[in-house]
């Protein structure tokens, strides 16, 4: 089987009603299966019986924070341990954030990136499945975006010192969805600001929270109502993680250097 022949994604599947506003999302029917685990995230539980015995069940409570275009917030998506793990993993690996200059149809490993005056933050790109904890987080990201793991780009940790920012931009029509994770509370400033929404929103970073939105219209064109900016934190550092959902099954096309030991997609030559 040619593993690259997963379909290109168009509209996010959750826009068809897979999510429920104030209801916990029922993930028990398709639990995240990574075992054995030494430590479970606080919101995860081991399935004790039934066909999926031993696998991890994660139940996440999402809230609709904006309707049409829909945006969801999951306040306890990451445990404190997971947030701290991601901050530790990214330490010493930050580079000046680049802005994607990708054209229509471009993929993560081929589009050009460039330095930009619109962005003064730092970024650290993680390998897919670099650690077991990261691998669980990536599975959870795929679950809340309702896509197979193959479409989740390498996660990128972004760090803003006080005064640093990422000016107004769109994440790209080649990324049908964005999942943004916040790794710490920020005292003042640092909001993710969506001024062009019908009901403009500025989301205050909250440790462990995930925000999910679609970047495209039903016809696949960019939905410019989703333009946003990372405002500068005033007095403390801000850490967030970009989890972009690519139009293509980007993980199947990735090189060995982009995949860590816990990435479930082995390279063809290792099969
Ligand atoms: O830091 C934020 O709040 C937003 C970051 C962002 O939009 C991005 O990196 O694409
Ligand atoms: Fe963005």
Automatic annotation (TrEMBL):
CC cofactor: L-ascorbate
Entry keywords, A to Z: Dioxygenase, Iron, Metal-binding, Oxidoreductase
Pfam family, one: 2OG-FeII_Oxy_3
All copies of domain Fe2OG dioxygenase, residue ranges: 151-247
Keyword Chaperone: no
Keyword Cell cycle: no
Gene Ontology cellular component annotations, sorted alphabetically: endoplasmic reticulum
GO MF, one annotated term: procollagen-proline 4-dioxygenase activity
Protein's recorded name: Fe2OG dioxygenase domain-containing protein
């Amino acid at each position: 089987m040619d593993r690259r022949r997963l379909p290109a994604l168009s509209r996010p599947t959750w826009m068809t009603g897979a999510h429920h506003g104030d209801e916990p999302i029922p993930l028990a029917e398709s639990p995240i299966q990574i075992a054995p685990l030494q430590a479970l995230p606080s919101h995860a539980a081991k399935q004790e019986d039934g066909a999926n015995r031993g696998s991890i069940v994660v139940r996440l409570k999402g809230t609709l924070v904006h309707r049409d275009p829909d945006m969801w917030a999951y306040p306890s998506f990451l445990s404190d341990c997971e947030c701290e793990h991601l901050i530790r993993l990214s330490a010493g690996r930050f580079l000046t954030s680049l802005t994607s200059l990708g054209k229509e149809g471009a993929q993560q490993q081929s589009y050009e990136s460039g330095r930009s005056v619109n962005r003064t933050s730092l970024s650290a790109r993680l390998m897919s499945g670099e650690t077991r904890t990261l691998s669980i987080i990536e599975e959870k990201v795929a679950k809340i975006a309702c896509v197979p793991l193959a479409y989740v780009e390498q996660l990128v940790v972004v760090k803003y010192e006080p005064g640093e920012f990422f000016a107004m931009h769109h994440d790209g029509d080649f990324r049908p969805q964005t999942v943004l994770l916040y790794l710490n509370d920020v005292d003042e400033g640092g909001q993710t600001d969506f001024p062009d929404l019908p009901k403009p929103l500025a989301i205050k970073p909250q440790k462990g929270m995930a925000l999910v939105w679609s970047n495209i219209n039903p016809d696949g064109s960019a939905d410019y109502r989703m333009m946003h900016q990372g405002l500068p934190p005033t007095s403390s550092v801000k850490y967030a993680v970009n989890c972009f959902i690519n139009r293509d099954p980007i993980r199947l096309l990735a090189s060995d250097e982009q995949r860590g030991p816990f990435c479930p997609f082995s390279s063809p030559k290792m099969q």
